[in-house]
Design goal:
By secondary structure, this protein is mostly helical. 50% of the residues lie in helices and 2% in strands.
């Protein structure tokens, strides 16, 4: 029975990185760039804004530990190694089939049955439940203002938002904006580089740092401790299906516009994570960038 349950989880659970979770857009065949917009790709739940991607064979990414930090507006060039590209491409194609053969049909059927308003409320609920991930990582990053905002958001949305089904904290009156923070980002703030690029089956794009970050986030996620053992996987699977139902078409647009979808996704993910770390460092220093501590 457990084996069957795990098999079901493997094919339905598109957990992706919570990191929930910067930007690169693939280049269209005509050479025109696609307008930046969030996109949820393949089996990952990560919402990645897009902007022009690197040409095939050229990597325009940077590892936070491999470059000098410069003022905003200056050009920076660096690379993130992809020595496992054959493996990563194989996993990319696996996740691609998983999306089109399993996740998308399930999400489309769910979308046809459940109204959009209800699906947005489900997203709000899960976002409210996992607030400890954002709160704890804001504290670890020294972003105490962000931690206070997260605590205020949780209190307001739980009490006034019917347990988090609604998001009154983000209203024009309160303007308590959700703080995107995760353990992989926290590691980056303290100087841990992205390392090499990885693509995991089911989980999608990652790096060694962000893979370790998933474990840290899992430990402070309240859903982890729901009993019996399989319920957290069912809840996470439902959360991902619900999220994808709100973004069907984004991944398809990325693939259609990209010369090489694998490179587009890789560059988008790594630049997204790099920017999140840079933003977190800036908040920690009151808006100024800081080189990572320790040797590169």
């Amino acid at each position: 029975m457990k084996a069957a349950s795990w098999l079901l989880v493997l094919f339905i659970l598109p957990v992706g990185c919570v990191h929930n979770p910067s930007s690169v857009a693939p280049r269209s065949p005509s050479g025109a760039s696609v307008q930046p917009r969030p996109v949820m790709v393949a089996a990952s739940s990560e919402q990645i804004p897009l902007e022009p991607a690197a040409k095939p064979g050229q990597n325009n990414l940077e590892d936070e530990t491999s470059v000098d930090y410069v003022e905003e507006g200056e050009e920076r060039a660096a690379t993130v190694a992809d020595p496992l590209e054959p493996f990563n491409r194989a996993m990319f194609h696996f996740n691609d089939k998983l999306y089109f053969w399993v996740l998308k049909p399930v999400a489309q059927g769910y979308k046809d049955v459940v109204p959009e308003g209800a699906r947005i409320s489900v997203r709000n609920f899960f976002s409210n439940v996992v607030f400890p991930i954002r709160f704890v990582n804001c504290v670890l990053q020294g972003n105490f203002n962000g931690a206070a905002i997260e605590l205020s958001r949780f209190t307001v949305n739980t009490l006034l938002g019917l347990g988090g089904l609604f998001d009154p904290a983000a209203s024009q009156e309160m303007k308590l904006v959700k703080q995107e923070a995760d353990f992989g980002q926290t590691l980056g703030v303290y100087g841990v580089g992205q390392g090499i690029f990885l693509t995991w089956p089911v989980f999608g794009p990652s790096t060694p740092r962000d893979t370790a970050g998933l474990a840290g986030d899992w430990l402070v996620n309240p859903i982890t401790y729901v009993s019996p053992w399989y319920v957290p996987y069912v809840l996470k699977s439902y959360d991902r299906v619900n999220e994808v139902s709100l973004r069907i078409g984004d991944y398809e647009a990325l693939k259609e516009a990209a010369i090489d979808p694998y490179l587009a996704l890789r560059d988008a993910y790594l630049q997204y994570r790099q920017k999140k770390v840079a933003d977190a460092r800036g908040r920690r220093l009151g808006g100024k960038a800081e080189p990572p501590p320790g040797p590169p």
